[in-house]
Each structure stands twice: as C-alpha cells, then as structure tokens.
C-alpha cells in the first residue's frame, strides 16, 4: 500500500528518487532495522519488535515504489496472486503432511548458489533455455527455502 501511495505522488517520488542522499539514507535505515531486529529481537518487547517491523515494512514500501512505475498494475496483481497462491499451496502441503523442509536447507542453499552462477553465466550467453530453466529452478528453490 505504501509503495503504491508513493508511486502516485509526484512530490514523494521526487523526494525519494530524485535525491540520492534521501534514497540511500532510506536504504541504510532499512538495513539498520534488519540488523537491529536480527541481533536484538530476543531482547525487545513485543511492542518494540512490532514497531520496528512496521517501520521496516514502511521503509521497504517507500523504496520499492518504483515497481509501480516500471510494471503495469495487471502485471503486479498477477504476480502477487501467483506468489500468494504458491505460498498458500506450500503452506497447505506442510500443514497437511506435517513435513518440515528445514533439513533440505543446506542443499537448497547450494542450489541457490548454483542458480546465481548460472544466471551470471547466462548474462553473457543470452540463452533462452538457460533463462527458463533458472526461472523455474528459482521458483522451486525459493519455495523450498520458504517452506
């Protein structure tokens, strides 16, 4: 919602993306919140953790507003629906089978490194076959890492 709101305001777009200091300041603030939440989550109260997470989500929305300028609303909506559907399906799989894919983590991480390397190689090869293989492999790898 915040990304869409920022993308609809010329003044906010100009402030965030027209000024490198503001943009990079927001990125640094996001990273600081991520590290702060990662390191201090166990020492925070639930209210503090919730507030920090909501602030992070808001900053993320501001810095991701450009997505609404690059892609159509239909493309964003269909991507959201496919992603939500995939997450829902894998959640139902985990819930109904009681299987935990945590033990696959090491293998999936190695597959992710391979995927990144294949994507980098394909920048130079420009192979549509490698592109589609890495696309589908990426979906499967991230579904496994998320589950």
Compact overview of the structure:
The chain has 8 helices and no strands. The protein has 147 residues and is mainly alpha-helical.
The fraction of residues in strands falls at: under 5%
Instruction: Give the mean pLDDT.
Output: 91
Rg from Cα = 19 Å
Number of strands: 0
Percent helix among the residues?
over 70%
- Name the poorly predicted regions: none
Which of globular, elongated, flat, extended, rod-shaped describes the shape?
A: globular
| Count of alpha/pi helices | 8
The domain tally reads 2
- Report the biggest beta sheet as strand number plus sense, adding barrel if it closes: none
The helix-strand sequence is HHHHHHHH
What class would the helix/strand composition place it in? mainly alpha
Gap from first CA to last CA:
26 Å
Which descriptors apply to this entry?
147 residues; mainly alpha; 8 helices; 83% helix; 0% strand; globular
What does this protein structure show overall?
- Helices cover 83% and strands 0% of the residues.
- With 147 residues, it is an all-alpha fold.
- The protein has 2 domains: 70 residues; 76 residues.
Strand-helix topology:
Layout: H1 2-7, H2 10-17, H3 20-40, H4 46-63, H5 67-70, H6 73-97, H7 105-125, H8 128-146
């Amino acid at each position: 919602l915040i990304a869409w709101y920022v993308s609809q305001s010329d003044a906010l777009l100009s402030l965030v993306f027209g000024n490198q200091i503001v943009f990079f300041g927001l990125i640094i603030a996001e990273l600081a919140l991520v590290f702060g939440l990662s390191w201090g989550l166990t020492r925070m109260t639930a209210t503090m953790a919730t507030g920090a997470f909501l602030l992070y989500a808001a900053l993320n929305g501001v810095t991701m507003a450009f997505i609404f300028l690059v892609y159509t609303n239909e493309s964003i909506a269909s991507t959201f629906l496919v992603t939500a559907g995939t997450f829902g399906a894998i959640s139902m799989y985990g819930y109904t089978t009681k299987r935990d894919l945590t033990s696959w983590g090491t293998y999936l991480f190695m597959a992710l490194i391979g995927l990144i390397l294949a994507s980098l190689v394909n920048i130079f090869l420009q192979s549509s076959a490698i592109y589609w293989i890495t696309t589908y492999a990426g979906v499967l790898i991230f579904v496994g890492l998320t589950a």
